[in-house]
Write a structure and sequence with these properties.
- The protein is 62% helix and 10% strand.
- By secondary structure, the chain is an alpha/beta fold.
């Protein structure tokens, strides 16, 4: 029987019901078809392993009837010594007194050796079946994960804006883990369990139908008990997980908000709330453990009752030498055989009931995975897309319209032209559409009306790779990989040499702090560049862009999260980077837009003013109001004379 801990782990996984089981199974079959040889070998090995479990009870019965307690044929209920012709002849001819003790011991020893050999062979075959099934399952999962990751790389930015990263990650982690459990363990156990039960039932019924039916009489009760206890335990574990979520939420809030809790002297109230939540979680777990712990004892008790029926009914037939329900007299060997059959039959009942939950979860997980794989990619190369040649950097917005939802336009007919080498500053209140404009240039989103052209090419008519390879982007929230500084910069151009990488870092003044790191350019950064300041992370990102040498540069509020001193360093890096490139700058600081060739003032998805910084100030319109409320103090701080030390 499966242990209680194993049953608990299986039941803790909440069953998710798939909506279209047949279609999901067909999709799985398509993956397994590529590894059909391993699956075929697994099935053959499972059949061989099951045969060893079915055949050993017959040998035990033969050992009893042929050598331990041999009886004349008139008193035997079906056992025969098929491999010992002398003993078979003696039984049939009622000449057992002519068989010596030595001959019986020799025959019994042969059966014992045969049993040992079958047990060893069964263990080896079972291990090989597990290995080949697990290997095939891992190959399928490897292909499935590759397809998932490839799909996630192809999905548009809009998909990630609408779907939580944790939910997407669960497809590659929890859903595939659930499938892995089934492929490596549950599928093998369920298939072999069903095969064993059918094979044993067939053998029992072909040996003696009434005796076989008596042996199987408690199976329906076992199934009902298993289903009831499993369902109740699953409900309790579902409740337990909900309560555990509340416990985690209280813990997270208690830790993250400890300053506010102490500031308002709410410690006692928070402790009491946590006590109630924790108690609810305890009660749910106790209830779940009650049903889980009851499952195995109930099934074992029913199994022993079934064995008791076999022993009592068969034993009475043997002792009284009376036919069982009008059939032949039951031999002692047949009683032993049916006892073994009953034990082997009862074992898979619990396993299948528990593992069936995992199979349901795997099918539902597969449905979610295939749902992600079938998600249409909004932004992709259209048929006949051409390679964009090396560009000079002229960008034209012609009545460009954009929206993230059909009934909520974000851009409303934006038109402007950026000549090669110009710097375009985009300003405006939050939600005006600044980021949407720059997202349209590398086709992170597509226009819903009008067009965006680069050097006369509509960005929708060229391949994404040839378009984006000529555009460099530095965002406010810089992403660095858990890798060396050298490789983080090399991400901008994978074929770059170490000397080219160091030259790019020197160009943007990042080399000075990099060389002070413990291992210089070979220093391994933490997750998202932890260990570096925001400005240092920005400088590495700028060096990465400088290495790629793009013709179009996009700076999305790249200096809004750094202090004034760091901003000056980054601005100096930008001066080198902006030379000869068409640049689009979104910023909340005046220093990044004062020298722009063109400033676009946006409001509600429309350009309401355009011109240079000084021209827009002279107009005393919306940009002037923005300057007076936001930029004027920065301007005064930047133009203020540097204090001189006191001569005295």
């Amino acid at each position: 029987m499966m242990g209680m801990d194993g049953g608990r782990r299986l039941l803790e996984g909440e069953t998710q019901q798939a909506q279209n089981v047949s279609q999901t199974l067909r999709r799985f079959a398509q993956y397994f078809r590529k590894f059909w040889l391993g699956m075929a070998i697994s099935i053959v090995l499972i059949v061989a392993s099951t045969w060893t479990q079915v055949y050993t009870p017959e040998l035990i019965g033969q050992a009893v009837d042929c050598y331990l307690f041999p009886q004349p044929a008139t008193a035997v209920g079906g056992s025969n010594c098929w491999y010992d012709s002398a003993m078979q002849t003696a039984i049939q001819g009622n000449t057992l007194d002519q068989i010596t003790t030595e001959a019986k011991l020799a025959g019994l020893g042969t059966i014992v050796l045969l049993l040992v050999g079958i047990f060893v062979a069964g263990s080896v075959v079972s291990g090989l079946a597990f290995y080949t099934m697990n290997l095939s399952g891992q190959m399928v999962l490897r292909k499935l994960r590759q397809d998932l990751f490839r799909k996630m790389q192809a999905l548009s930015i809009g998909y990630y804006a609408e779907n939580e990263a944790g939910n997407i990650m669960s497809r590659v982690t929890s859903d595939t883990d659930t499938i892995q459990q089934v492929f490596s363990f549950a599928l093998l156990q369920v298939f072999s369990g069903f095969l064993l039960m059918i094979w044993i039932a067939y053998n029992m019924l072909t040996t003696n139908i009434p005796y076989g039916l008596l042996t199987l009489s408690l199976v329906p009760v076992m199934f009902v008990a298993t289903i009831y206890l499993s369902n109740e335990a699953r409900k309790a574990f579902r409740r337990s997980r909900q309560e555990m979520g509340s416990v985690n939420a209280d813990l997270q809030e208690g830790i993250a908000g400890v300053r506010e809790v102490q500031a308002f002297s709410r410690e006692d109230e928070n402790i009491e709330n946590f006590r109630r939540t924790n108690a609810a979680n305890r009660d749910a777990n106790v209830r779940a453990a009650t049903f889980t712990s009851a499952l195995n004892p109930v099934l074992e008790a029913l199994g022993y009752v079934g064995i008791g029926i076999v022993v009592v009914v068969g034993g009475l037939s043997v002792l009284r030498a009376e036919p069982l329900l009008g059939t032949a007299v039951i031999s002692l060997g047949t009683v032993f055989t049916f006892m073994q059959y009953a034990q082997r039959f009862n074992q898979p009942v619990t396993q299948i009931a528990l593992l069936w939950t995992n199979i349901q979860n795997a099918i539902a997980g597969g449905e979610r995975i295939f749902g992600l794989l079938d998600t249409p990619v909004d932004i992709q190369d259209k048929p006949g897309a051409v390679q964009m040649p090396e560009i000079s950097g002229k960008v034209e917005f012609d009545s460009a319209q954009a929206s993230y939802k059909s009934d909520q336009p974000v851009l409303k007919g934006v038109s402007f032209t950026a000549e090669p080498g110009q710097t375009i500053a985009i300003v405006g209140p939050t939600g005006a559409g600044k980021t949407t404009i720059i997202n349209l240039i590398p086709r992170f989103y597509d226009v819903t009306g009008g067009s965006v052209k680069i050097d006369g090419y509509d960005v929708r008519d060229v391949t994404l790779d040839s378009l984006r390879s000529q555009i460099g982007i530095v965002l406010q929230d810089t992403f660095l990989f858990s890798d060396t500084v050298m490789n983080n910069i090399r991400f901008g151009r994978l074929d770059a040499t170490d000397d080219e990488i160091m030259a790019a870092a020197k160009l943007v003044a990042a080399d000075s702090f990099i060389e002070r790191l413990p291992e210089g350019y070979q220093t391994v950064l933490g997750e998202r560049g932890s260990g570096l300041s925001q400005g240092q992370r920005q400088l590495i990102a700028i060096a990465r862009v400088a290495l790629s040498d793009p013709r179009i540069l996009i700076l999305d509020e790249a200096t809004s999260s750094v202090d004034t001193r760091t901003e000056r360093i980054i601005q100096k890096a930008f001066e080198h980077l902006l030379e000869g490139r068409t640049s689009f700058v979104i910023a909340h600081r005046l220093s990044t837009i004062r020298n722009a060739d063109l400033v676009l003032m946006l409001r509600d998805g429309e350009i309401i003013e355009r011109g240079t910084h000084h021209q827009l100030l002279e107009q005393r319109g919306a940009y002037y109001e923005l300057y007076m409320s936001q930029f004027r103090y920065q301007d005064e701080a930047e133009t203020a004379p540097t204090p001189q030390p006191n001569a005295s």
